Amino acid sequence: MTDTPTISAPKTSALMARGAAFLGTEHAILCGAMSWVSERNLVAAISNAGGFGVIACGAMTPALLDAEIAGTKALTAKPFGVNLITMHPQLFELIAVCEKHRVGHVVLAGGIPPKGSVEAIKAFDAKVIVFAPTIALAKKLFRSGADALVIEGSEAGGHIGPVSTSVLAQEFLPVLAEEHLVFVAGGIGRGEAMAAYLEMGAAGVQLGTRFACASESIAHPAFKQAFFRANARDAIASVQVDPRLPVIPVRALRNKGTEAFTAKQIEVAQLLDAGTVDMAAAQLEIEHFWAGALRRAVVDGDVERGSVMAGQSVGMVTREEPVADIIAQLLAESEAALGQR
After folding, report:
1. What is the C-alpha separation between 213 and 85, in angstroms, rounded?
2. Residues 193 and 143 in one domain
């Protein structure tokens, strides 16, 4: 656990000051929670480098999350967060695991937080970070106790919404950023873009794709090579087959795995028609599909049939490099851009 030397980026740091104070970090740069990728090694490396690592709980059981938090704490003394999926059937048990470890920040993702979840997190003095696709919902979540918001554009990898980051930033930041902490995510691959969102009022930024192939990432070499070969057009959004089965689109590199998802949707829609499963169970089955497909790509290196989730910034990921170098580069690019203003 070596401390990273302080990087001098005064203009960027000034714009990030609120976000950094909220996170307890040197820089208001979060790593998006990427299942199987955002585990103890990458999370600790990002936090040790002055950013904010976030454990991707995904489909973990409470016991697995318990071990992952403990493992991360063994690698860093710096703040980090835990991302929980709101539709997880054991959500409240997972919150209890976060309480046991006194996790300081919990990110609720994948849907509207169920009743009592925000209160359960606030009860042990943790900060709650949420996602919202509309300003009305964002305001409601802030009134309900959320401490910070992430707006994530369709350029992002993994689960995405329909609106681009640049449009969301123009819509949300002027309305919310003065009174609330708003982090911007989706398609950010360079510091110049980071600087632009900070100037618009963002408290900080979140990046996932840029960190996925870091030296400290445990992702399989074949997974990383797929990123290095890809360009923005290769990262495509999944197609919804049946309008009765609302499936959140997922952005990933085009392969046989994307075709398999289309077949999976048809299969689940038929189960829904037959009354074998209800809507909640159907959506959970889709989530389990993604968890398994992503594991095949990230852990096993099956980049043909697995899900190689990547954002459209994937074309800017051209080599494996340490997390500290990525953060230093982002800050240098941001500072240079702000210096020209």
Report:
1. 23
2. yes
